UniProtKB/TrEMBL annotation:
Organism, scientific name: Halocynthiibacter styelae
InterPro entries linked to this entry: AAA+_ATPase (IPR003593), MoxR (IPR045427), P-loop_NTPase (IPR027417), RavA-like_AAA_lid (IPR041538), RavA_ATPases (IPR050513)
Name the UniProt record assigns to this protein: AAA family ATPase
Domain of life: Bacteria
Coiled-coil boundaries: none
Pfam families: AAA_lid_8, bpMoxR
PANTHER family documented for this protein: ATPASE RAVA (PTHR32204:SF0)
Domain AAA+ ATPase: 43-183
Length: 402
């Protein structure tokens, strides 16, 4: 494979770019989820989203699944969910003949893309069956066995499990993203996009939407990923792994080896058949701990700061946005907020401005202790408090210390 990818692959990547751009208009602050689902499907790996209910996890998965022509299966798992609800009930006619054979039509064993919400609530029987599906793409029940055409399973949960057995199960998901509610800056955009969806659910956009990707298109991409040259990234990738181990971030050998597929796919979707340090950013999503993800973003700032991918732009951005980067964003937002302060406290917009300011102070104090807060952000925080304290209104509450 030459360093310039062939025209057929380029055309497929162009369509993926159109698909992502189309979806991002409706997925406020959730483009990264959409991108990671696409990355998981292309690499035939699994994706895990962790976050509170109602934060758009399922919406992002459904939106991505609609862009592929494969079979989609989804299920909300509960503590009393039976295996048959996912894998199919037993065939009663076969059972009369002494055969144990489930009816898998339209169930998980026939899916190309699966979304399993509240995955860690599954029983031991369900999780054991899922291991075979996720690892070997095979479903077994008694003497019954069938191949599963699964491209990717996307799972979601409100929190990571503390049980070591469940943590081992979670390791089967190569990509992990931690989801937070939409930020205050984008609340208006969220409300507008949500209302637009609610009032136009029956309106079809098939005339303008990009063509769905076929199974053949996906196979071409998957084959192309396996042909990407990783030579120039091996030493840098190994260096990152060493730095992570020194920091105490442990990843299984299986996970590290599979991570190379993500690097190769990042290069391919960036239009390159030879990977470089610009394609190492997926390593952040291989870490299954929100605090460690944030720490590592700063630890690997030099390496991940070189990340680049126009198609998966939001994933690249978030992979390098550690505490220092967030401090820069908060500082910029705070400076903009100060410049928008109404001249008079009697102005109808003053209360709206004050609530935004109080919310920003809460985010600053929740994200940084007084000792760890960067100087520029500390100065801004002092200025925010002073901007209200000088008015004839109560100063905003702040949990930190000056």
């Amino acid at each position: 494979m030459s360093e310039i990818i062939n025209q057929n692959i380029s055309q497929i990547i162009e369509r993926i770019s159109e698909i992502i751009e189309n979806a991002s208009e409706q997925l406020v602050e959730r483009r990264v989820l959409f991108e990671l689902v696409v990355l998981g499907i292309i690499t035939k790996e699994h994706v895990l989203f962790i976050g509170p209910p109602g934060t758009g996890k399922s919406a992002a998965v459904k939106s991505a699944a609609r862009q592929f022509s494969g079979t989609y299966f989804e299920y909300l798992i509960g503590r009393f969910t039976e295996p048959g609800e996912l894998f199919g009930a037993l065939d009663l006619a076969a059972l009369k003949d002494g055969q144990v054979r489930p009816v898998v039509q339209n169930m998980l064993p026939e899916a190309n893309i699966a979304f399993l919400d509240e995955i860690f609530l599954g029983s031991t029987a369900i999780l054991n069956s899922l291991l075979g599906v996720l690892n070997e793409r095979v479903y077994k029940r008694g003497t019954f066995e069938c191949k599963v055409p699964l491209w990717s399973c996307v799972a979601a949960s409100n929190a990571l499990p503390e049980d070591p057995m469940l943590q081992a199960f979670a390791d089967r998901f190569l990509l992990t993203s931690f989801v937070e509610p939409v930020s205050e800056e984008n609340l208006n955009a969220l409300l507008s996009a949500g209302w637009a969806r609610a009032t136009n659910e029956s309106v079809t956009t098939s005339a303008t939407a990009p063509t769905k990707l076929s199974a053949q298109d996906l196979q071409h991409l998957t084959d192309a990923v396996c042909q990407v040259d990783l030579t120039d990234t091996l030493e840098s990738y190994a260096h990152i792994v060493r730095k992570l181990r020194v920091r105490g971030v442990a990843m299984s050998d299986r996970r590290l080896v599979k991570g190379q597929k993500l690097i190769a796919a990042a290069a391919l979707l960036g239009g390159r058949s030879k990977a470089s340090v610009a394609d190492l950013w997926p390593v952040i999503y291989m870490i299954q701990d929100p605090d460690l993800q944030n720490e590592v973003k700063d630890l690997l700032a030099a390496e991940l700061g070189k990340g680049e991918n126009i198609l998966l732009s939001e994933s690249v951005k978030q992979s390098s946005s550690g505490p220092q980067a967030r401090a820069v964003d908060l500082t910029k937002y705070g400076q903009d907020l100060l410049s928008q302060k109404p001249a008079l406290t009697s102005d109808p917009g003053f209360e709206i401005w004050q609530v935004k300011l109080e919310s920003l102070l809460t985010r600053i104090d929740a994200g940084f202790s007084a000792e760890d807060m960067p100087q520029t952000l500390s100065v801004l925080r002092t200025g925010l408090i002073a901007s209200v304290s000088s008015d004839d209104t109560p100063a905003p509450k702040a949990t930190g210390t000056d």
